[in-house]
Design goal:
The chain has about 450 residues and is an alpha+beta fold. It is about 35% helix and about 10% strand. The strands form six sheets. It has a three-stranded antiparallel β-sheet. It has a three-stranded antiparallel β-sheet with strand order 13-10-14, with no helix packed on it. Strands 4-5 form a two-stranded antiparallel ribbon. The longest helix is centred in the N-terminal third of the chain and has 23 residues, at about 1-25. It is globular and about 65 Å long. The termini are far apart.
Length: about 450
């Protein structure tokens, strides 16, 4: 008995020692998680008071802030509770110290922290975000003009990330020192980009919708730091932190489907998937494969604006800059596929959680991906992310189909809730590969996709 207690005690001591060593020598992924979730890499964009006063500009009839205020703030802008310690702020906003005082800064999780079935996830694209309203309202709450230098978003849940890159990088020399005048790098605001899930990156050789960047790049994670207040030396100093953050991202796993799955139907769906979808999207399971395929525009047929909207001037300036000089060989080795004018077919791990679909978020459910004739031309949704907002049959968001264009009398905030696929950059055409399936075959494929 005594020997048993001694052995148990020794084992516990050994585990404690291992735990202590692990805490003293965290892995790169552990360091990356700490950096991502606990540090501010951007200077404050707004004062702390702007968060508290934003409600004054929501509705002229409000006399007092709606309660509970934090929840009302999140719903207004499509933000989500942080699944980590973050004070009163949602994912994407955090306290940061400026030159004179503390304020509120943005971080990666503004766009890359989402919610599905009522649960927040780091690395899930935020498809509820109204980034335009957030920046306009907090500027006004700080006593500044709400006018932004370009359109941040035309449709809620999407962003004009290409315009952001063109604008911010246009103020920088190749060594990232500030310019006195902005380079014209092709500032288009009709690209309408959905946010891909981070956990897909581990399978990819190339990233971005066009496959135009090496997936191994650390510096590609850092352009969001191009605030005019960020010194050039900051990028070199923080690159090791982002190497750790990349390690954390590459360890992320997709959330499991939270509802019942018909395993027999899913097995039948796997067979259909293997015959119809796998050549572009890969195979799944222990011995998975992923072809990293760029599908030509004439074959995929989806909206071409994202491909053509990134100008040659922007690509050239980026590649000459600090970002593009990380490892020039990568551009030659991993991005040969970009000679193809098209879009990269993504892995489908966790596809149930990543609605809406296509690079522009124009298709609300997987069912609509597989039946182009059924896709709604105009629709809106609640922009809630709880279970009631989710459609487990069609696999995606429940929507309200609209017959008419947005009323001209609606505010811009309300118009951004309406997805109109007749407008530039927002076509829901193309990817007709599921049109020849029967409805029962589509539902079988959907059941299989729930297992990924």
């Amino acid at each position: 008995m005594a020997k048993g207690r001694l052995a148990a005690g020794a084992a516990l001591s050994g585990l404690a020692m291992i735990s202590a060593l692990s805490a003293a020598n965290p892995s790169a992924a552990e360091r990356g998680e700490t950096a991502l979730l606990q540090r501010a890499f951007n200077p404050p964009s707004w004062s702390a008071q702007s968060y508290k006063n934003a409600w004054r500009y929501w509705d002229r009839g409000l006399r007092d802030p709606p309660q509970p205020y934090d929840a009302a703030f999140r719903e207004r802008y499509g933000l989500h509770p942080a699944p980590y310690a973050n004070g009163d702020y949602p994912m994407g906003l955090r306290e940061a110290r400026g030159l004179l005082s503390k304020g509120i800064a943005t971080d990666c999780l503004l766009c890359h922290g989402g919610s599905i079935a009522g649960q927040s996830y780091v690395g899930l694209g935020n498809t509820a975000l109204d980034i335009q309203a957030l920046f306009e309202d907090l500027a006004v709450a700080d006593g500044r003009s709400p006018s932004l230098p370009f359109t941040f978003s035309n449709v809620r849940g999407t962003s004009e990330a290409g315009a952001m890159a063109a604008y911010l990088l246009g103020w920088r020399e190749p060594n990232l020192t500030m310019r006195t005048t902005r380079l014209e790098l092709g500032l288009r605001d009709d690209l309408c980009e959905d946010v891909p899930a981070w956990w897909l990156l581990k399978k990819k050789k190339t990233m971005y919708y066009t496959g135009s960047g090496p997936a191994r790049s650390v510096r590609s994670l850092m352009p969001f730091m191009l605030s005019p207040l960020t010194l050039p030396s900051t990028f070199d100093r923080e690159e090791p932190s982002f190497r750790d953050i990349q390690a954390y991202i590459l360890n992320l796993q997709p959330p499991k489907y939270p509802f019942p799955i018909d395993q027999g139907l899913a097995q039948a769906g796997e067979t259909i998937f293997s015959q119809t979808c796998a050549r572009c999207h890969g195979t799944y399971g222990e011995k998975w494969t992923y072809p990293n395929k760029i599908v030509p525009l004439e074959e995929i047929g989806t909206d071409p604006n994202r491909y053509y909207g990134i100008s040659a001037a922007l690509r050239t300036h980026y590649n000459r800059s600090w970002f593009g000089r990380e490892n020039p060989g990568w551009l030659a080795d991993d991005c040969k596929a970009t000679a193809t004018a098209g879009y990269q077919a993504p892995p489908l791990d966790g596809i149930w959680a990543t609605a809406p679909y296509f690079h522009n978020g124009s298709v609300p459910t997987v069912y609509h991906v597989l039946d182009s004739k059924a896709r709604p031309g105009r629709f809106t949704r609640s922009y809630h992310t709880d279970q009631d907002a989710y459609d487990p049959i069609k696999l995606g968001w429940k929507v309200q189909v609209l017959e008419q264009p947005a009323d001209a009398t609606l505010s811009r905030y309300q118009r951004r809730k309406i997805y109109d696929t007749t407008l530039p950059g927002r076509s829901n055409g193309g990817h007709t590969f599921g049109d020849d399936l029967t409805d029962s075959e589509r539902l079988a494929v959907i059941e299989y996709l729930k297992t990924l």
